[in-house]
Amino acid sequence: MPFPLTVEQKQTAFWLAVWAAFFFLLVTLGPVLTPFLAAAIFAYALNPGVDRLDRLRFGRRITMPRALSVLIVVTLFFAAITMLVLIVVPVLQKEIPLLQAQIPAFLAKANDVLAPKLQELGVKVRLDSAGIKQLASEQMAASGDAIWSAVLNSARVGGTAVLGWIATVVLIPVVLFYLLLDWHAMLARIAGCVPRRYIAATMGMAQEVDVLLAQYLRGQLLVMLVLAVYYSVALAIAGFDVALPVGIITGLLVFIPYLGFGLGLVLALISAVLQFSDWSGLIAVAIIYGCGQVLEGFFLTPRLVGERIGLNPLAVIFALLAFGQLFGFVGVLLALPASAVLMVAFKHLRRHYLSSSFYNA
User: Fold this and answer.
1) Which residue spans traverse the membrane (predicted)?
2) 219 in Cβ contact with 304 (< 8 Å)
């Protein structure tokens, strides 16, 4: 005969079911939550600046209103992003036509190298501009209806994606403003929902996570700045025409582990192949990005970010894939800080497990 559940056990089971349903809803609504997650990340990073403005005094009794402090910080933040875009976009507009003009030479070089090997395998195709145009024409003539259907489907999906990005870009500043405005009250409400018997342990873990993430954010911003300057200057010295945009993109995307460095490396390799007629460009890219990895991995990250956040590379790759699957691009941005938070939680859970009677019995 099963034992009847006590009132406390029934309440515990009920609230566990409620929280499980809540987290399932969050996972289901992952794409919708993208602007809110992005705004929450920005709000956590910008809140110390708002708090500093709040503490400013004009005279003995006059202090700056919270709303004005939030407005100033948000305006400066998006002004900095706009300035960055205004720096990179004109350079790209100037350099992209140069790259486009060099594409025929690149295709001719690829045809000279790869076409004989493909012919040995029984594949007869020309990789120059004329050959690619002919291949595309044959494929379009053979499957015009299928291509037209694919284009229409792509346009529908692409239009929906564009509208989603526009909504996200518009929503982030609005959500960010209100999150910063009610930041401390919101945290107090969250703390008020924690069961009283767990409040001390929860607040202790929250403070530990806060220290960890603050160290991560400050250090990562410095790493991004140093690497953006390094790659831009090094590529410019090597004679790359696209040194500034590629260097800035590589440095700023470092906060996405592996993917950021990989994207910057691919852009630099493409620039080297298109700009240089010999192997000097590829050798320069290998030296510059190799030294950049050594600089980041052995000096900048340990000194500026700290080894406390260090995670196993396999854990980082899994976190990138998992959070990207759940929350899209913002999930990729959130992966490493969230992994640090989960690491703190796992450390406490492991300590509790090792001291439990279940383990020691």
Assistant:
1) 13-46, 67-89, 162-181, 221-240, 246-270, 282-301, 313-346
2) yes
**Residue 63, phi then psi, degrees to nearest 5:** -120, 160
Residue 283 lies in a domain: no
Taking 60 as the threshold, does the pLDDT of residue 136 lie above it? no
337 lies in some domain? no
Counting Cα atoms < 13 Å in the Cβ hemisphere of 231 gives 30
% of the chain exceeding 70 in pLDDT: 67
For 185-222, what is the HEC assignment?
A: HHHHHHHHCCCHHHHHHHHHHHHHHHHHHHHHHHHHHH
Q: Tell me if 329 is assigned to some domain.
A: no
What are the residues facing 58 on neighbouring strands? 62
User: Above 60 in pLDDT, residue 148?
Assistant: no
Res 22: pLDDT: 83
Q: In whole angstroms, what is the distance from residue 333 CA to residue 53 CA?
A: 28
- With beta carbons less than 8 A apart as the criterion, state whether 305 and 220 touch: yes
Look at residue 281 in the predicted model and tell me its pLDDT: 84
Residue 36 domain boundaries = 31-56+63-193
**Is there a domain that residue 9 lies in?**
no
Total structural domains within the chain: 1
